[in-house]
Every structure is written in C-alpha cells, then in structure tokens.
# Entry
Amino acid sequence: QKEVEQDPGPLSVPEGAIVSLNCTYSNSAFQYFMWYRQYSRKGPELLMYTYSSGNKEDGRFTAQVDKSSKYISLFIRDSQPSDSATYLCAMIGYWGSQGNLIFGKGTKLSVKP
Amino acid sequence: SQTIHQWPATLVQPVGSPLSLECTVEGTSNPNLYWYRQAAGRGLQLLFYSVGIGQISSEVPQNLSASRPQDRQFILSSKKLLLSDSGFYLCAWSVLGLEYFGPGTRLTVL
# Structure
C-alpha cells in the first residue's frame, strides 16, 4: 500500500461549483498536512497547511483532516477558472524532520467558465 | 522574504552529454534543500536532499549527483545524460518542515 493515495483525475467542474479534493494515507504518524497548487509548467506553491485533525479556512479554501479515517480534503468554494491546476497533498510526521514531505501524485482540476 | 531561483528554465540536451542545474535561495539561512524530478503521471520523486554544506543524501541510485558548495546553493549534475533523465526538475527549500519550490527546469534529453 502506498503511503499517500490521491486520485489523479482529471476533475472537470463548471465555474461556481464546490470542489472536493481528497487524499488518503496509511501512516498514522503523519501529523502535519499540506496542500500545494501547481499550475502547468510551474513549481508547486504552498496553499495551506494544518496540524492534526480539524478544519482550517482561508478565503474560498478549506482544508479538513480526519486522522481517525486517515483522510484529508481540500474544498474550494465558488470555483474559478483560475483555480484550474494540479493539486498535491503532502504530509510529514513532525516539524524539523530531516526527511522530506510525502506527496500524493496530484489531482488535475479544470474549472470551465 | 525568501526567494528561490533555478536556471536554466528550459534545457534540451543530447544523450550522453553532461548536465548542471543550479538552485539558489535568498532570504534564509541554513535551509534544508531538495532536488525533485516530476515526470508525467508519476508525481514528485525526491532525488537528493541536503541539511547543510557538503551534506547530501541520495534517495534514488542513478547517474545523477548533487552538491552543496555554499549554504544557499544546490547543484544537480550528471556526467552522461540518459533519455530517461528527461523531466521537470524542481529545487525546494524548507525550514521546519514546510517546503517551498522553485520555478523548475524542464529538461528534454534527445
């Protein structure tokens, strides 16, 4: 079983839709969870990060972590064409780890005007 | 604020030629530095990471190597490129776990 699973999509939605992007993981030691957005031919940019379980909101974006189910989500409200990108989840056990983040493979999202 | 630079942005090289990709970080000291490769449909593959000058950990055995001659400089090299080395190469830095990526270098080996 891979450490982090993420549906690659592609996911296509109309403008204004609510988008739900998800990852599952197997390592219960993960405590910090991140979402990155990557536009075509660009480097990934950090969108949001959360610690342990719960929700975190930033504008139209909400990150949700359910550690009991080993499941994380990113919700995008009122989606815009500019949200069209690949979204990668990432996670790590604790701050200061000398290793790196464990990434999902990314979900490609297309928001149609 | 911190900034990460990579160059070149695009590179086309023949099989068997050498490679040198450079990454520099501004605005932070003693960062962890990383080289990733991203191939279509395969996600981010960690190649090397470094916690300090001259300290390199290799994650994937291959014909690539990395060096960190200065605190904020990370170099990815190869003596002889293979077709399979084509991909999007990303440098990243981190402090306390969060990783921040550079703009990437798209390498095509012909």
